[in-house]
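Final report, closing paragraph on structural work. Over the funding period we assembled a curated collection of sequence-structure pairs, and we close with a single example.
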Amino acid sequence: MISIISTILIVISVLVTTLITFNPNSRAIVESDFMRNARNNAYLYSWELAQLNVRTGNLGVGDSQDNIPLGYLSKKDIKEQQKLKADISYVDVPPEDEALGKDDYLAIEINKE
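Its predicted structure, as stored:
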């Protein structure tokens, strides 16, 4: 009986100590999650913009569009910081790769200033 009570007390004390000393860096976790979401949204927007440009004839095979502004992530003293820009290109696949069944494709690269 005494051993059961002492075991329960030890387990409770270990749990309390763990809860008190555990201090996650929540700011870093939230910032990294925010950045991941911002990048994913930038890729989606760039993909839609690239498709629209291809369909309207503004982006042909072998063409590219560089430094397309995608907005910013923060502002400091009315100055935009951490701007996101996209480089979109419509890559022409060589004839030998076309014979293998590969098609022309859109290449999108997101850059942060």
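The beta strands are 64-76, 79-91, 105-112. The chain has three helices and three strands. We thank the funder for supporting this effort.
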